[in-house]
Amino acid sequence: MELTNQDIEDLVAFRRDLHRFPEISNEEKETAERVVAFLADTGADEMLTGLGGHGVALVYDSGKPGPTLLFRAELDALPIAEISDIPHRSTIEGKGHMCGHDGHMAILAALGRLFGRQRPASGRVVLMYQPAEETGDGAAGVTADPRYALIRPDFAFSLHNLPGTPLGHVRLREGVVNCASRGLRITLNGRTAHSSMPESGVSPMLAVSRLMPRLAALGGGSFDSDEFSMATVTHLRMGEPVFGVAPGHAEIRVTLRTRQDARMEGLCTAAEAMAREEAKAEGLQCTFDYHEIFVASLNEPEAAALLAAALDAENVPHDEEELPMRASEDFGIFGHTSKSAMLYLGSGVDRPNLHNPDYDFPDELIAIGARIFMRTARDLLG
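Request: output the structure for the sequence above.
Response:
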């Protein structure tokens, strides 16, 4: 089965419509509704909405025994103002599809059209439109939803577009492809004072000045090794923006990163111990909380081999260059309950980088991505 010229026109229009109306993580209500409306006439055998937030899952069931395959796309955009002058630029102030999730959604919509016309010969295909990938909440929320048990897959597949890689060229390997990461917020509390008498208060200034470079030096190990770890200080807030008050409060945010989940606990423990030490030295109270928690994404060997076979069958060039990546991706959660793999589809050497304010997903990738996933599904299910 192949997409028709009309399909391609409709899918491009759908992708651009999504681009015009971006919604950020956990706010994707209208985006989910657009997905449901576009795929309504494909006759999915089952549709689940509100999964783990605004998630949508469409099931195309052969009615015959066989494995369940899940293909995942993301619903969310980013809190980034678009600066391009393309006709379909964002109409929402301060928000934009600067990561190409609009294109990923269109690729899955192409699968919906094809499976709507002809079910797989065996098993089931699930199209998963997942919320909140950018914050790390989405995959965890979807898989924790009790209804996920109804569609729990044997295999889960996903893709991400990748600027800097030739258009249509794929990066794929088994094993680690994206790092684990989590955001640590360190809060230091002392006591404010008049700025003319700072000695009468308890200031976090000295603790902060020592702690930031110590945190940044926490990382270690070559990125080529599973011993790799990294700490990046991303934000500092101390006191109030006034001149008459010596600070009594500070907040440091640091992103912790490892190649393997097993290394993350040790990195967190080391960062917390370091903060407690500096807080104690200055008579401060110290607390911690964690945000945007991503597990490592690992491509299971059999799942990665299935994608590689589909790429070869479709004559799509591929290699392992640029993998693994330091960046994180919450698709790794699906690998905890199924054989999963993710590939990276080149969006052009001269394309702006992901999260740049002028990024736009190339429409040419919709058909290529759909071909890869359709071949994967047909190879497994017939």
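The chain has a mean pLDDT of 97.
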